[in-house]
Structures are given as structure tokens and as C-alpha cells.
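Hi everyone, sorry if this is the wrong subforum. Our group has a chain we'd like a structural model of before ordering constructs, and none of us has done structure prediction before. Sequence below.
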Amino acid sequence: MHGPALVGWLMVALCGATGGYCLLLVRGAAGRPRRAVAVAEGAMGLGMAAMAVPAAPPWPAAPALPLLCAATALGGAALLAVRGPAHRGHHLVEAAAMLYMVVAMAAAPASHSGHATPTGLPALTGALLLYFAGYALRTAPRLLPAAGAAEVVAAGPPDAGRSPEVAAACRLALAVAMVAMLIGL
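Answer:
Right subforum, don't worry. Here is the predicted structure as C-alpha cells:
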């Protein structure tokens, strides 16, 4: 990722934690579609973390891990789009955007300082920025519990692994990270 090192490391932490958490949910996921979603989101988060490392070796020598994660997520998302719920098409867009960024980084010419300056297609980058910003704004309200505050307190602590708010938080974190990575492209 192109940008300040602190931002890169914060992106590594956010995406890595999100990806790791999603992979932890694979064990407890009920049913094959939910496991596939957790694997796709986990692969996406870990791939995004690998792409955000500020001191990564120069591209094109280093895209193996993000490319592998993006390909895994793209395959899982394609299966979900064909066989899973309709809203899982987001995973297909997310995986395609990651592949786009990997290709843009790998094709980036080296500058006089020896660092590659990734550039993509401005129209495609803009369209992806609008999509992920809109997705983040649409997903953010889902972080609020569906029940009233008094009912939530009376029900006790929710099972974090099965909470729809936690799933929305993971998707929101990856969408916001994707916006930041596209801006840095």
C-alpha cells in the first residue's frame, strides 16, 4: 500500500484481526454456506493485511500471498453468488477489487527512488470507492442491536460468534479498509 507507514500498520492490524476472527468462526459456523462465508471473509482480511504491509518487498515479487488470498476469496465468493444468498454478491465485488489492486500493484512501474507507485484505472478505482463507501454507510447502522436497550440488558451478553452485529462489524471493517486501500492506490 502506498502511504504513511503508521496507516499501513494500522490497516495490517485491522484486516489481520478481522480475517483471523472470521477464520475462527469457521469452526462454529452452522452449515456449509456460513462456513464458506467465514472462509471467504477470512481470506479477504488476511490478504488485505498482507497488501497493507508498509515495508513489503517490491512488487511484482511480493504479490503471492495477497494474490492467493484474493483468488481463494474470489472462488468462494463466486460459489456463494451462484448458490448462496443474493447479498453475498458483495464478496464477489470485494474479491474482484482486491485482485484489481494486486494487478495494479504488480504492474506499477518503479520510480527513480526504486519504489513502485501503483496506479489503476481512475474510473474503475472511483467506481469501487463509491461502492465500498456506500456499502460502509449502509452497513454501519446494522451494528446497533435490533432489540431495545432494556431488552438487550435483560437478555444477557450475546454469543459474539453468532451475533449479526459482529458479522456486520467485520464486513464494515473490511469495507472501510478497502476504501483506504483504494485511496492509496
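For your construct planning: The first helix runs from residue 5 to 28. The chain is about 70% helix and 0% strand.
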